User: Which sequence fits this backbone?
């Protein structure tokens, strides 16, 4: 799966080079915060049913920083992106009678490469830019009480696996070059030992237009 992820990253840069050579498409840079939710994923307790309490920020969202992303428009409707995220997980789910199960600040690292399409036809606006994406990633989560790979390994190892990702998002442009971006991504792991999870991100975005190069 690492080879698949590296291949997708290579494709991102190849497409970016193609766009730079043939179209003057813009780059978009993003920096912001992210929130990881391992509860609403359809697993047994302390995790829960799929989409259950999806917006329960207080009990289930682990909010951290940073998230950084670089995106490249191929044309007006398609862009490719790569993203890196860091977090510390303190919430893992709930039990009956206990609305929040806490864990010991488990390290979270995520790297993702996505192909995205704008769905501007939903809004007749130059400022609002909804989008959807598909891609691959690789995520590491430190072992803890509820995600231990094996008892022999202890609870300190950083364990990683490839994921397949699907996302929806919305950009709002304050001007032609500065805006705000929200994205929600579902990450389904290829390995049972890495939990499926949701990741949300909120960031400031900056657009840099290219000149046409030959």
Assistant:
């Amino acid at each position: 799966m690492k080879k698949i992820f590296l291949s997708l990253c290579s494709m991102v840069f190849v497409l970016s080079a193609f766009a730079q050579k043939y179209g003057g498409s813009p780059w978009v840079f993003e920096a912001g915060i992210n929130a990881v939710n391992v509860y609403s994923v359809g697993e047994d307790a302390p995790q829960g049913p799929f989409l259950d309490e999806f917006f329960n920020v207080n009990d289930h969202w682990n909010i951290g920083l940073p998230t950084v992303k670089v995106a490249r428009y191929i044309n007006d409707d398609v862009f490719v992106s790569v993203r890196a995220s860091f977090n510390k997980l303190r919430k893992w789910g709930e039990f009956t009678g206990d609305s929040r199960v806490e864990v010991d600040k488990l390290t979270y690292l995520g790297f993702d490469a996505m192909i995205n399409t704008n769905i501007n036809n939903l809004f007749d606006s130059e400022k609002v830019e909804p989008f959807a994406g598909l891609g691959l990633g690789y995520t590491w989560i430190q072992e803890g009480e509820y995600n231990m790979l094996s008892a022999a390994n202890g609870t300190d190892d950083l364990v990683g696996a490839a994921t397949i990702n699907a996302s929806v998002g919305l950009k709002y442009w304050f001007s032609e070059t500065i805006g705000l971006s929200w994205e929600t991504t579902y990450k389904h792991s290829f390995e049972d030992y890495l939990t499926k999870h949701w990741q949300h991100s909120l960031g400031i975005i900056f657009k840099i237009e290219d000149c046409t190069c030959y």
Remarks:
- The CA atoms of residues 132 and 168 lie 4 Å apart.
- Residues 2-22 form the longest helix (21 residues).
- Helices lie at 2-22, 57-60.
